[in-house]
Amino acid sequence: MKGSQTINEVLARLQIDALNPMQQAADEAIRKAGDTILLAPTGSGKTLGFLLPVLHRLEPDFAGVQCLILSPTRELALQIEQVWKQMATGYKVTVCYGGHPMATEIQNLREAPAVLIGTPGRVADHLTRNTFHPETIRMLVLDEFDKALEFGFHDQMAFIAGHLPVLSRRVLVSATPLKSIPEFLDFQATQTLNFLAESAEEAPEAASLLSLKQVPLVDDNQPETLYRLLCSLNSEPALIFCNYRELTEQVNEYLHRKGLVSACYHGGLEQEARERALIRFRNGSVSYLVTTDLAARGLDIPEMKHVIHLQLPRLEAEFIHRNGRTARMMATGTAYLLVNPEEPRPGYVPEELDEYALPAECQRPEPPVYVTVYVSGGRKNKLNKVDLVGFFCQQGGLEKSDLGQIDVLDTSALVAVKRQMADRLLSSVRGRKIKGKAYKIQLAR
User: Fold this and answer.
1) pLDDT digits (tens, 9 = 90+) for 221-249
2) Among 26, 122, 190, 210, which residue is least crowded by beta carbons within 10 Å?
3) pTM of the predicted model, to two decimals?
């Protein structure tokens, strides 16, 4: 229902009772004249904060792209698209990013979407190919702008901005303070909304909700210390941060050898592997995500009670973003620092930290409730969630209560199934067809 939608109707579809103060301020500010800078921490709901006013400013009968949203990562671009689709606005959206088939994107752009979401490199590529008409775009949103600059997208963003001749509204979103605004953005009558606390004293409630604990190494053995720490967390999920890709893979393999269900996530993985790791973590079939700072912000990850610093980052900003994955939205959380008391610490770490006492006895955590089942067909095969639920229940002998989160991607689907029902399901559906076609159905790895 274009044009006549109210905020309450959209929030009802998102199953949100009300906007938080940041989202309210962003919605009001972006609707008004002038460009907007929105500064807010990770996990505060910035995506909805800018998508609501974008929806308000779209014209139902306008032909062509009206709003361009640039994201520094594929995952964030896909998440913005997901939120927009959940809003059920009636406006077409298309997402473009590296690693996605160019032919598919060109086909999707033949009928211009109202909202185009993409990474700077891929959108610049489309501009050079003339696959969409930029002269209709009146609104530009740069999400996680600080991260985009850090990733080296300055030239691509400048190239894109230079091809938007009728741009009248700019929104710059960041999770860290900005030192300056590049000239290519040509900001006019700028209004800044700053929801970043400059210090713990300015945000005493948030500061009190996060506990920092130091975990001394057991016999100078970091992997063993990590394992014993995880054993003490009541089988609850955790994010484990490392500084290097190689270490994430080594730690992930170690946890597997110890019988824990984990996955690793870093920028060196293929897009499909990264996407699958995130989905399995979100749907509750992976307990521990071992990651670099790539997962510190800009990703749709459930509220965490536990964040573990296997290595401390070089910069304080990354330390803050990692910790921002817990103690969000008035929930409590703990960040654990695995430290050697003899080694110097970065200056941003408080001198006095409470010590976390590891238990003498080590009981292996319970496995997650769900496993993820992979199906080799997706949206491009005309499969949807209803098809999969029907197939798994009718042919697989499951109840709806045996199913968890279902993610239907372009060419595959990932379905969370209760662990104790997985073998029965796979045995029952072997050789069966979905909508008359055979697909590979197996446990996702």
Assistant:
1) 899 999 999 999 999 999 999 999 999 99
2) 190
3) 0.71
